[in-house]
Design a protein that fits this description.
Blueprint: H1 3-27, H2 57-73, H3 81-106, H4 110-139
Helix pairs in contact: 2-3, 3-4
Length: 147
Amino acid sequence: MKRTGWISVIAVFLAVAAFAFGILSRRGAPDASAPPPVEARAIDGHAGHEGAPSDTPSTRAYREAADRMHQAMNIDYSGDADIDFLRGMIAHHEGAIAMARIAVEEGEADDVRGLAQEIIRAQEAEILRMRIMLARHEDAPADPARP
């Protein structure tokens, strides 16, 4: 076939494929006037688990630590990406330390307890560093070039 013949065959193939894709993709499209689907399970992933009889003391402690961490991470955003990052990460690291302490106190595996102790040391140092940076950034005058 000549060069223009192959180009025509390819063009027709692409047109048919695009048409078929359009038809097939619309087949599964939801009706815009239909109400949205209802999620049957609870939004809170911990709902129904509090105080379950099968929860061990460590499970209860992990749940409480995670809940405190998520609550602390729900910061009032300032609009300054640097400050917001530092505030959120401090809360996140404090949660990680709380969970690591549970592993040290309740865990039995030496390697896991050792890792948890390393995490405590490392994240405490990072929190200190972030608190210093946060104080410096919170005290700095607003940059007029940034919105």
